[in-house]
Design brief:
Strand order of the largest sheet of chain A: 3-2-1-8-7-6-5-4
Oligomer: homodimer
Radius of gyration of chain A: 19 Å
CATH architecture of the largest domain in chain A: Alpha-Beta Barrel
Largest interface: A-B, 55 and 56 residues
Number of strands of chain A: 8
Number of helices of chain A: 13
Distance between the termini of chain A: 31 Å
Shape of chain A: globular
Strand content of chain A: 5-15%
CATH class of the largest domain in chain A: Alpha Beta
Helix content of chain A: 40-55%
Number of domains of chain A: 2
Order of helices and strands of chain A: EHHEHEHEHHEHEHEHEHHHH
CATH superfamily of the largest domain in chain A: Aldolase class I
CATH topology of the largest domain in chain A: TIM Barrel
């Protein structure tokens, strides 16, 4: 229990994850409205868009308009996502507005790397080496290694902590070769294989191996255990979480694989509140933004809390 | 960790909770089909209906037809719910098919008792005293005290462990006066106020006070933390859970209070599997029944796992 953090950092990914998957089109003005509302809740890190090929992800064809359109708050870091040199170039055009950092993004499952990127693990390492060098050549710091499928994979099955560590070692080798100083490790439950005992094992082993790195969790709710996994992470001392308002990022069509989004930001904040862990977020404001997100996408979102209301609001009424 | 149970008992309440809230009408044959399918999954306790006033709960106007209609398995206990003498009488007509036991049902929140039952706590105690005596006079054992709103209340706010214990003491007084031997305590998070630290505190204090009672949890997912609360309960040694297949029991209309159902049986079973705790349930079969439930009610159910499929099924494919 002494491992529990006093406060956590939340990286809100709702706009980026949500708007890329919605059948849309979502008006640019609505995307901007959501980003500006999120920035008023006390969230300090918001991922606002993907710079990706608009033919592949039409939902982000307006990425540049979104980034140039929102009114930025000085106390909020706005981030974006990209996967290649063209994406980086588009991001760099907004150096004044975006917090631009690079990441060495690897996958603990070679089967997923092949399926998702059409590359072998070795080819992916080579691609990441090039991308890291490219970032550094633009004075973009690369301080983070991300491991996808860190808790299991629909194509490869279980992933052992040793496989996660080996993947991270590959990432550290790339960082060393390129002269990057890694500070953060992010472990992603990309396909919803995590359960609390597995989270405890993987986080524990990674922390033992790299005690000076901060560890972050990116938890998809594919099988309904994301909030239990977040709780397990908090008890292990994890103080960095990605999450999405309303649970954005799920597939809006019933009965399809991958229907679930990320762990909901509101539910993560409520969990922290009840555990005495600070998030800096005004939960009632965030719930209002969750309801706004639901209105913007035009369908019910997975978050239960935005439908029920916060305990705080009921405590006030009952007092 | 040594508190963790080796196995748990699940009381499947999907048919009862689900069909009472659906706008329906759900054909009697579909209710029977779901009950029979649930009994093939390895579940040993299934609550099949409510004997309630059909003018108030039209979804259970066909309770008698359902109970007389399903093919019973000898290794499954089929239970029902009722709230008064008329309901008990209707249940007793099925003594050969139903496992009929009584319960002293109290609420830790007087505000909720007034709102829900239009009674003071004292009036409710008197009603429970009469009901307990009535059950015993029909040779129906009363071995359980249930406490609703044991973790908080939308009308009264936070509920302390001391209030839960005081409510249970009232129940034990009734049991003693009536000559009932209590073996089980059930703590219900009726309005979704539970979070892991609160579950740990309440379960811990109740167990210290009554170490020989088995403790059960009934967890609504109103604010999205039900599975994290179940995990906290498991780690505290709780080995009795109510749950509903697919998360049945929620309100199918978007944006309404009480939209969430109970903790999903499938997700509870998956959690237990990953923790090495036996449930006796064949998860893949149960997922099929969750999909059947979704087809019967005609809308998407809250369970993520029925949409994603079990880890076991993907392990097989990956092997």
């Amino acid at each position: 229990m002494t491992d529990m953090p006093r406060s956590i950092n939340i990286h809100e990914e709702g706009p980026r994850e949500g708007f890329q998957i919605e059948p849309g089109p979502i008006p640019t003005a609505d995307k901007i409205r959501l980003i500006e509302a999120l920035a008023e809740t006390g969230l300090h890190h918001i991922q606002v868009c993907s710079f990706v090929n608009p033919r592949v992800v039409p939902g982000w064809a307006d990425a540049a308009d979104v980034v140039s359109g929102f009114k930025a708050r000085p106390d909020v870091r706005y981030t974006a996502l990209w996967f290649n040199a063209q994406g980086l170039e588009r991001a760099l055009a907004f150096r004044d507005r975006l917090h631009i950092t690079g990441s060495i993004s690897l996958t603990a499952s070679e089967a997923f790397t092949r399926k998702n990127l059409n590359r072998s693990h070795a080819e992916n390492l080579e691609a990441m080496r090039k991308q890291t060098a490219l970032h550094l050549s633009h004075d973009v710091p690369v301080e983070r290694i991300g491991v996808m499928a860190a808790f299991g994979c629909n194509y490869q099955g279980d992933i052992t902590p040793a496989q996660v560590i080996s993947t991270l070692e590959d990432g550290f080798t790339i960082a060393k070769e390129c002269g990057a100083t890694i500070k953060h490790i992010s472990l992603a439950d990309t396909m919803g294989w995590g359960a609390p005992p597995r989270v405890e094992r993987v986080v524990g082993e990674v922390r033992s191996r790299w005690p000076d790195q901060t560890i972050g969790l990116h938890l998809h709710d594919t099988r309904g255990l994301a909030i239990a996994n977040a709780h397990a992470g908090l008890k292990m001392g994890v103080a960095q979480f990605d999450s999405t308002v309303g649970g954005l990022g799920g597939c809006p069509f019933a009965g399809q694989k991958g229907a679930a989004g990320n762990v909901c930001t509101e539910e993560l904040v409520m969990l922290c509140q009840e555990m005495g862990i600070e998030t800096g977020v005004d939960l009632d404001r965030l719930i209002e933004v969750g309801r706004m997100a639901e209105e913007i996408v035009g369908h019910v979102l997975p978050s239960e809390l935005i439908h029920a209301g916060s305990l705080g609001s009921f405590r006030k009424r009952a007092a």
